[in-house]
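User: Can you predict the 3D structure for this chain?
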Amino acid sequence: MKGSQKNHGEYRLPADMQPWANEPLYLIIARWCLQQNRWINRNDVAAAFYLTERRTSLQLAYINQKKNRIACRTRIHVSDHQGHYHNEIWVDHILSSPIENYVRSSSSRRRSEPSKNSPQTRRVGSGMTGHGCLWETILRRVRVEQGDE
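Assistant: Here is the predicted structure, written as structure tokens:
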């Protein structure tokens, strides 16, 4: 069965993926990967869904980033005979609905507003306080020395 999405173009669904035809493509691919119960690379998905390797790579990257919906593992596999690196994914579980308030990592957490009693730690500028007119003073001295004022 052919499917299409506005932002993905056409693709073909494997026969066992028909019940999920109305879901987004990344979820259909994730379900297919889950059913395979093995490490999957972009060539496997491209062959099953008739996608280009580039589109398949983007879909797999998106699946890997959707931690609030898809539990998966990734690895880098090196081909023995050619020495090429291939990213592979293993889907462990698909959640029926996204986890609310999921935080991927400490670097992606939103910082809370600083309390009124704590000092501000992110000040922008040269770090010199009390010298707001220093630049104007320096410019004035240079102009006086040159006779411009």
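The mean pLDDT is 78. The CA atoms of residues 26 and 59 lie 6 Å apart.
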